[in-house]
Write a structure and sequence with these properties.
The chain is of the alpha/beta class. The protein is built from 11 helices and 23 strands. α2 (about 80-90) crosses α3 (about 105-120), α4 (about 135-140) packs parallel to α6 (about 170-175) and α5 crosses α7 (about 190-200).
Length: about 400
Amino acid sequence: MSGTSPRPLAVPAGPAVLDVLPALEAALSGRAPVLPYAAGDPEPSVPSHDPDGLPDGLALVIGTSGSTGRPKRALLTAEALERSAWATHQVLGGSGGWLLAMPAHHIAGLQVLVRSLASGVTPAVLDLRDGFSAEAFAAASAMVRTSSAAPRRYTAIVPTQLARLVDDALGREALLGFDGVLVGGAATPPALVERALDLGVRLSLTYGMSETAGGCVYDGVPLPVSRVHVDNDRHVVLGGDTVAHGYLGETAPSRDAFSVDPDGVRWFRTDDLGHFDDDGLLVIDGRADDVINSGGLKINPGVVEDALTRHLDDVLDVVVLGLPDPEWGEAVCAAVTLVDPAGHLTTREVRDRLRGILPDAALPRRVLVLTAIPQRGPGKPDRAAIRRAVQGLG
Protein backbone atom coordinates (compact mmCIF):
# COMPACT_ATOMS: atom_id res chain seq x y z
CA MET A 1 0.00 0.00 0.00
CA SER A 2 1.27 3.45 -0.85
CA GLY A 3 -1.70 5.77 -1.12
CA THR A 4 -1.77 9.56 -1.32
CA SER A 5 -2.10 11.57 1.90
CA PRO A 6 -5.50 13.24 2.44
CA ARG A 7 -6.10 16.97 2.58
CA PRO A 8 -8.76 18.58 4.82
CA LEU A 9 -11.99 19.54 3.02
CA ALA A 10 -14.36 22.09 4.57
CA VAL A 11 -17.96 21.00 3.97
CA PRO A 12 -20.47 23.89 4.14
CA ALA A 13 -24.02 23.66 5.42
CA GLY A 14 -27.01 24.53 3.29
CA PRO A 15 -27.03 24.75 -0.53
CA ALA A 16 -23.32 25.66 -0.59
CA VAL A 17 -22.58 22.01 0.21
CA LEU A 18 -22.85 21.36 -3.53
CA ASP A 19 -19.59 23.26 -3.94
CA VAL A 20 -17.72 20.22 -2.61
CA LEU A 21 -18.95 17.92 -5.39
CA PRO A 22 -15.92 18.57 -7.67
CA ALA A 23 -13.51 17.77 -4.83
CA LEU A 24 -15.49 14.64 -3.93
CA GLU A 25 -15.52 13.57 -7.56
CA ALA A 26 -11.74 14.07 -7.72
CA ALA A 27 -11.39 12.04 -4.50
CA LEU A 28 -13.28 9.17 -6.14
CA SER A 29 -10.54 9.05 -8.75
CA GLY A 30 -8.37 7.64 -5.97
CA ARG A 31 -5.69 10.27 -6.51
CA ALA A 32 -6.93 13.21 -4.40
CA PRO A 33 -8.23 11.89 -1.04
CA VAL A 34 -9.97 14.27 1.35
CA LEU A 35 -10.64 14.53 5.07
CA PRO A 36 -14.06 16.23 5.38
CA TYR A 37 -14.97 18.48 8.31
CA ALA A 38 -17.73 20.98 9.04
CA ALA A 39 -16.99 24.40 7.59
CA GLY A 40 -16.64 26.84 10.46
CA ASP A 41 -14.95 24.28 12.70
CA PRO A 42 -11.16 24.39 13.15
CA GLU A 43 -9.37 22.67 10.32
CA PRO A 44 -8.39 19.19 11.54
CA SER A 45 -4.75 18.29 11.71
CA VAL A 46 -3.69 15.23 9.78
CA PRO A 47 -1.97 12.89 12.25
CA SER A 48 1.47 11.62 11.46
CA HIS A 49 1.33 8.43 9.44
CA ASP A 50 3.38 6.34 7.09
CA PRO A 51 2.32 7.20 3.52
CA ASP A 52 3.34 3.69 2.51
CA GLY A 53 0.72 2.40 4.94
CA LEU A 54 -2.16 4.14 3.18
CA PRO A 55 -4.25 2.02 0.80
CA ASP A 56 -4.06 2.46 -2.95
CA GLY A 57 -7.10 4.33 -4.21
CA LEU A 58 -7.73 6.08 -0.90
CA ALA A 59 -10.60 8.56 -1.40
CA LEU A 60 -12.01 9.51 1.97
CA VAL A 61 -10.74 9.77 5.53
CA ILE A 62 -13.94 10.06 7.53
CA GLY A 63 -14.32 10.61 11.25
CA THR A 64 -16.24 8.07 13.26
CA SER A 65 -18.96 9.31 15.58
CA GLY A 66 -16.73 8.71 18.58
CA SER A 67 -19.08 6.78 20.87
CA THR A 68 -16.25 6.24 23.31
CA GLY A 69 -13.12 8.33 23.64
CA ARG A 70 -11.48 10.13 20.74
CA PRO A 71 -13.11 9.81 17.32
CA LYS A 72 -11.08 7.77 14.84
CA ARG A 73 -10.70 8.39 11.11
CA ALA A 74 -11.58 5.50 8.84
CA LEU A 75 -9.72 4.97 5.56
CA LEU A 76 -12.18 4.42 2.72
CA THR A 77 -11.11 3.75 -0.85
CA ALA A 78 -12.91 4.91 -3.96
CA GLU A 79 -13.84 1.30 -4.65
CA ALA A 80 -15.47 0.95 -1.21
CA LEU A 81 -17.58 4.07 -1.72
CA GLU A 82 -18.54 3.27 -5.30
CA ARG A 83 -19.45 -0.33 -4.48
CA SER A 84 -21.62 0.90 -1.61
CA ALA A 85 -23.43 3.37 -3.89
CA TRP A 86 -23.94 0.73 -6.58
CA ALA A 87 -25.30 -1.82 -4.10
CA THR A 88 -27.66 0.70 -2.51
CA HIS A 89 -29.20 1.61 -5.86
CA GLN A 90 -29.50 -2.06 -6.79
CA VAL A 91 -31.35 -2.92 -3.58
CA LEU A 92 -33.63 0.12 -3.81
CA GLY A 93 -34.65 -0.62 -7.39
CA GLY A 94 -32.38 1.51 -9.54
CA SER A 95 -30.57 4.84 -9.73
CA GLY A 96 -32.35 8.03 -8.78
CA GLY A 97 -32.16 11.59 -7.58
CA TRP A 98 -31.49 12.23 -3.91
CA LEU A 99 -32.50 14.71 -1.22
CA LEU A 100 -29.64 15.46 1.17
CA ALA A 101 -31.33 15.87 4.55
CA MET A 102 -28.40 15.57 6.95
CA PRO A 103 -24.95 17.13 7.40
CA ALA A 104 -22.59 16.05 4.63
CA HIS A 105 -19.39 15.96 6.69
CA HIS A 106 -20.61 12.68 8.23
CA ILE A 107 -20.62 9.41 6.29
CA ALA A 108 -24.42 9.22 5.92
CA GLY A 109 -24.61 12.63 4.28
CA LEU A 110 -21.48 12.08 2.21
CA GLN A 111 -22.91 8.87 0.85
CA VAL A 112 -25.92 10.81 -0.47
CA LEU A 113 -23.43 12.94 -2.41
CA VAL A 114 -21.54 9.86 -3.62
CA ARG A 115 -24.77 8.20 -4.78
CA SER A 116 -25.74 11.41 -6.54
CA LEU A 117 -22.44 11.44 -8.42
CA ALA A 118 -23.03 7.81 -9.34
CA SER A 119 -26.51 8.68 -10.64
CA GLY A 120 -25.31 11.74 -12.52
CA VAL A 121 -28.03 13.87 -10.89
CA THR A 122 -27.25 16.83 -8.62
CA PRO A 123 -29.01 16.29 -5.28
CA ALA A 124 -31.56 18.61 -3.72
CA VAL A 125 -30.45 20.00 -0.36
CA LEU A 126 -32.44 20.53 2.81
CA ASP A 127 -31.00 23.58 4.57
CA LEU A 128 -30.53 22.56 8.21
CA ARG A 129 -28.84 25.76 9.42
CA ASP A 130 -32.04 26.83 11.21
CA GLY A 131 -32.92 23.32 12.33
CA PHE A 132 -35.17 20.63 10.90
CA SER A 133 -38.85 21.10 10.12
CA ALA A 134 -41.38 19.04 8.22
CA GLU A 135 -42.37 22.09 6.17
CA ALA A 136 -38.81 22.68 5.01
CA PHE A 137 -38.36 18.97 4.25
CA ALA A 138 -41.51 18.99 2.11
CA ALA A 139 -40.33 22.05 0.19
CA ALA A 140 -36.89 20.53 -0.41
CA SER A 141 -38.36 17.20 -1.49
CA ALA A 142 -40.23 18.99 -4.27
CA MET A 143 -36.83 20.06 -5.66
CA VAL A 144 -35.50 16.51 -6.17
CA ARG A 145 -34.45 16.05 -9.77
CA THR A 146 -34.35 12.81 -11.74
CA SER A 147 -33.27 11.73 -15.22
CA SER A 148 -34.16 9.05 -17.72
CA ALA A 149 -31.22 6.99 -16.44
CA ALA A 150 -32.00 7.76 -12.79
CA PRO A 151 -35.80 8.05 -12.58
CA ARG A 152 -36.39 7.20 -8.92
CA ARG A 153 -36.51 9.52 -5.87
CA TYR A 154 -34.66 8.82 -2.63
CA THR A 155 -33.68 10.37 0.67
CA ALA A 156 -31.88 9.33 3.85
CA ILE A 157 -32.96 10.52 7.30
CA VAL A 158 -32.53 9.69 10.98
CA PRO A 159 -35.25 8.33 13.31
CA THR A 160 -35.98 11.69 14.96
CA GLN A 161 -36.62 13.25 11.55
CA LEU A 162 -38.90 10.35 10.62
CA ALA A 163 -40.89 10.79 13.84
CA ARG A 164 -41.47 14.47 13.12
CA LEU A 165 -42.43 13.83 9.51
CA VAL A 166 -45.05 11.18 10.21
CA ASP A 167 -46.63 13.52 12.77
CA ASP A 168 -47.09 16.25 10.15
CA ALA A 169 -49.45 16.27 7.16
CA LEU A 170 -46.90 17.93 4.85
CA GLY A 171 -44.21 15.59 6.10
CA ARG A 172 -46.31 12.50 5.43
CA GLU A 173 -47.13 13.67 1.92
CA ALA A 174 -43.46 14.34 1.19
CA LEU A 175 -42.38 10.93 2.48
CA LEU A 176 -44.92 9.18 0.27
CA GLY A 177 -43.39 10.87 -2.76
CA PHE A 178 -40.11 8.94 -2.37
CA ASP A 179 -39.40 5.55 -3.92
CA GLY A 180 -37.09 4.81 -1.00
CA VAL A 181 -36.49 6.37 2.40
CA LEU A 182 -33.37 5.17 4.21
CA VAL A 183 -33.48 5.51 8.00
CA GLY A 184 -30.38 4.92 10.10
CA GLY A 185 -27.80 6.44 12.39
CA ALA A 186 -29.54 5.08 15.49
CA ALA A 187 -32.10 2.45 16.42
CA THR A 188 -35.55 3.25 15.05
CA PRO A 189 -38.33 2.45 17.54
CA PRO A 190 -40.45 -0.46 16.24
CA ALA A 191 -43.65 1.49 16.90
CA LEU A 192 -42.40 4.29 14.64
CA VAL A 193 -41.45 1.79 11.93
CA GLU A 194 -44.92 0.24 12.07
CA ARG A 195 -46.59 3.61 11.83
CA ALA A 196 -44.51 4.69 8.83
CA LEU A 197 -45.10 1.41 7.01
CA ASP A 198 -48.82 1.58 7.71
CA LEU A 199 -48.84 5.01 6.09
CA GLY A 200 -47.27 3.52 2.97
CA VAL A 201 -43.77 4.96 3.38
CA ARG A 202 -41.22 2.90 1.41
CA LEU A 203 -38.91 2.55 4.38
CA SER A 204 -35.55 0.77 4.59
CA LEU A 205 -33.84 0.46 7.96
CA THR A 206 -30.09 0.69 7.50
CA TYR A 207 -27.25 -0.43 9.71
CA GLY A 208 -23.61 0.48 9.25
CA MET A 209 -20.99 3.02 10.24
CA SER A 210 -18.04 5.04 8.99
CA GLU A 211 -15.91 1.90 9.02
CA THR A 212 -18.26 0.27 6.48
CA ALA A 213 -18.78 3.32 4.23
CA GLY A 214 -22.18 3.82 5.83
CA GLY A 215 -25.13 1.44 5.78
CA CYS A 216 -24.21 -2.06 4.63
CA VAL A 217 -27.19 -4.00 6.06
CA TYR A 218 -30.70 -3.01 4.92
CA ASP A 219 -33.72 -4.39 6.75
CA GLY A 220 -31.55 -7.07 8.33
CA VAL A 221 -30.02 -8.22 5.02
CA PRO A 222 -26.45 -7.36 3.97
CA LEU A 223 -25.98 -5.48 0.71
CA PRO A 224 -24.87 -7.63 -2.25
CA VAL A 225 -21.27 -6.48 -1.66
CA SER A 226 -21.37 -7.05 2.12
CA ARG A 227 -21.28 -9.92 4.59
CA VAL A 228 -22.20 -10.25 8.25
CA HIS A 229 -21.80 -12.75 11.06
CA VAL A 230 -22.14 -12.72 14.84
CA ASP A 231 -19.16 -14.02 16.81
CA ASN A 232 -19.14 -16.12 19.96
CA ASP A 233 -19.32 -12.98 22.13
CA ARG A 234 -22.46 -11.83 20.23
CA HIS A 235 -20.52 -9.00 18.56
CA VAL A 236 -21.66 -8.13 15.04
CA VAL A 237 -18.84 -8.52 12.51
CA LEU A 238 -19.23 -6.83 9.12
CA GLY A 239 -17.28 -7.73 6.01
CA GLY A 240 -17.01 -7.14 2.28
CA ASP A 241 -16.05 -4.56 -0.30
CA THR A 242 -17.15 -1.50 1.71
CA VAL A 243 -15.04 -2.12 4.83
CA ALA A 244 -12.37 0.48 5.59
CA HIS A 245 -8.63 -0.23 5.50
CA GLY A 246 -8.14 0.68 9.17
CA TYR A 247 -7.77 4.08 10.82
CA LEU A 248 -5.52 6.97 9.87
CA GLY A 249 -2.40 7.14 12.03
CA GLU A 250 -3.23 4.00 14.04
CA THR A 251 -1.83 0.51 13.83
CA ALA A 252 -2.52 -1.63 16.91
CA PRO A 253 -6.13 -0.46 17.40
CA SER A 254 -6.77 -1.12 13.74
CA ARG A 255 -5.43 -4.64 14.08
CA ASP A 256 -7.82 -5.23 16.97
CA ALA A 257 -10.88 -4.14 15.00
CA PHE A 258 -10.00 -4.94 11.38
CA SER A 259 -8.92 -8.20 9.81
CA VAL A 260 -8.54 -9.85 6.41
CA ASP A 261 -9.46 -13.50 5.97
CA PRO A 262 -7.58 -16.02 3.77
CA ASP A 263 -9.92 -15.20 0.88
CA GLY A 264 -8.93 -11.52 1.04
CA VAL A 265 -12.26 -10.37 2.52
CA ARG A 266 -11.93 -7.42 4.90
CA TRP A 267 -13.82 -7.60 8.22
CA PHE A 268 -14.65 -5.12 10.95
CA ARG A 269 -15.67 -6.23 14.46
CA THR A 270 -18.19 -3.74 15.84
CA ASP A 271 -19.05 -2.90 19.44
CA ASP A 272 -22.68 -3.82 18.73
CA LEU A 273 -24.36 -6.98 19.98
CA GLY A 274 -26.76 -8.81 17.73
CA HIS A 275 -28.40 -12.04 16.65
CA PHE A 276 -30.19 -13.53 13.66
CA ASP A 277 -33.95 -14.00 13.95
CA ASP A 278 -35.93 -17.02 12.71
CA ASP A 279 -35.97 -15.52 9.20
CA GLY A 280 -32.19 -15.12 9.16
CA LEU A 281 -32.37 -11.33 9.49
CA LEU A 282 -29.79 -9.47 11.54
CA VAL A 283 -31.21 -7.91 14.71
CA ILE A 284 -29.13 -5.36 16.61
CA ASP A 285 -29.57 -5.77 20.37
CA GLY A 286 -27.56 -2.68 21.34
CA ARG A 287 -24.00 -1.77 22.16
CA ALA A 288 -22.01 -4.03 24.42
CA ASP A 289 -21.18 -1.13 26.73
CA ASP A 290 -24.81 0.10 26.93
CA VAL A 291 -26.28 -2.94 28.72
CA ILE A 292 -27.54 -1.91 32.16
CA ASN A 293 -26.93 -4.18 35.16
CA SER A 294 -29.56 -3.24 37.75
CA GLY A 295 -29.99 -5.43 40.82
CA GLY A 296 -28.20 -8.27 39.06
CA LEU A 297 -30.53 -8.14 36.05
CA LYS A 298 -29.18 -7.21 32.61
CA ILE A 299 -31.45 -4.71 30.89
CA ASN A 300 -31.30 -3.81 27.20
CA PRO A 301 -31.85 -0.04 26.86
CA GLY A 302 -33.57 -0.61 23.53
CA VAL A 303 -36.40 -2.53 25.18
CA VAL A 304 -37.05 0.37 27.56
CA GLU A 305 -36.80 2.93 24.75
CA ASP A 306 -39.31 0.99 22.67
CA ALA A 307 -41.75 0.81 25.60
CA LEU A 308 -41.51 4.57 26.16
CA THR A 309 -42.17 5.49 22.54
CA ARG A 310 -44.80 2.78 22.01
CA HIS A 311 -46.90 3.41 25.12
CA LEU A 312 -46.38 7.11 25.84
CA ASP A 313 -47.81 9.06 22.92
CA ASP A 314 -46.39 12.32 24.24
CA VAL A 315 -42.77 11.07 23.94
CA LEU A 316 -41.04 12.01 20.67
CA ASP A 317 -37.52 10.70 21.26
CA VAL A 318 -35.79 8.87 24.09
CA VAL A 319 -32.37 7.65 25.16
CA VAL A 320 -32.07 5.19 28.03
CA LEU A 321 -28.83 4.60 29.92
CA GLY A 322 -27.56 3.31 33.24
CA LEU A 323 -26.09 5.44 36.02
CA PRO A 324 -24.20 4.23 39.09
CA ASP A 325 -26.53 3.52 42.01
CA PRO A 326 -25.45 2.51 45.54
CA GLU A 327 -28.38 0.12 45.97
CA TRP A 328 -28.93 -1.35 42.51
CA GLY A 329 -25.44 -1.11 41.01
CA GLU A 330 -26.90 0.77 38.07
CA ALA A 331 -30.20 2.64 37.80
CA VAL A 332 -32.21 2.84 34.59
CA CYS A 333 -32.48 6.49 33.54
CA ALA A 334 -34.16 8.13 30.55
CA ALA A 335 -33.78 11.41 28.69
CA VAL A 336 -36.80 12.27 26.54
CA THR A 337 -38.10 14.93 24.21
CA LEU A 338 -41.84 15.52 23.93
CA VAL A 339 -44.17 15.98 20.97
CA ASP A 340 -45.40 19.13 22.69
CA PRO A 341 -42.28 21.14 23.65
CA ALA A 342 -44.32 22.86 26.38
CA GLY A 343 -45.48 19.55 27.85
CA HIS A 344 -44.46 17.96 31.14
CA LEU A 345 -43.60 14.42 32.14
CA THR A 346 -42.43 13.21 35.54
CA THR A 347 -40.56 10.10 36.59
CA ARG A 348 -43.58 8.94 38.60
CA GLU A 349 -45.84 9.29 35.54
CA VAL A 350 -43.46 7.25 33.40
CA ARG A 351 -43.14 4.50 36.01
CA ASP A 352 -46.90 4.34 36.58
CA ARG A 353 -47.70 4.17 32.87
CA LEU A 354 -45.12 1.47 32.17
CA ARG A 355 -45.73 -0.65 35.26
CA GLY A 356 -46.82 -4.10 34.14
CA ILE A 357 -45.41 -3.48 30.67
CA LEU A 358 -41.77 -3.55 31.78
CA PRO A 359 -40.26 -5.54 34.65
CA ASP A 360 -39.94 -3.40 37.77
CA ALA A 361 -36.14 -3.39 37.46
CA ALA A 362 -36.45 -1.82 33.99
CA LEU A 363 -38.71 1.06 35.06
CA PRO A 364 -36.74 4.33 34.84
CA ARG A 365 -35.69 5.76 38.18
CA ARG A 366 -34.89 9.15 36.67
CA VAL A 367 -36.54 10.85 33.71
CA LEU A 368 -35.21 14.10 32.29
CA VAL A 369 -37.21 16.09 29.73
CA LEU A 370 -34.97 17.88 27.20
CA THR A 371 -35.76 20.27 24.39
CA ALA A 372 -33.46 18.21 22.14
CA ILE A 373 -31.36 15.08 22.47
CA PRO A 374 -27.64 16.01 22.29
CA GLN A 375 -26.06 14.54 19.16
CA ARG A 376 -22.56 13.42 18.24
CA GLY A 377 -23.49 12.71 14.63
CA PRO A 378 -26.66 12.40 12.53
CA GLY A 379 -29.15 10.51 14.67
CA LYS A 380 -26.49 9.39 17.13
CA PRO A 381 -27.14 10.45 20.75
CA ASP A 382 -24.28 11.91 22.75
CA ARG A 383 -24.56 9.55 25.70
CA ALA A 384 -21.80 11.28 27.67
CA ALA A 385 -23.63 14.62 27.49
CA ILE A 386 -26.95 12.94 28.34
CA ARG A 387 -25.37 11.14 31.28
CA ARG A 388 -24.06 14.44 32.68
CA ALA A 389 -27.49 16.05 32.27
CA VAL A 390 -29.32 13.19 33.99
CA GLN A 391 -26.77 13.09 36.80
CA GLY A 392 -27.54 16.76 37.35
CA LEU A 393 -31.00 15.73 38.52
CA GLY A 394 -29.34 14.61 41.71
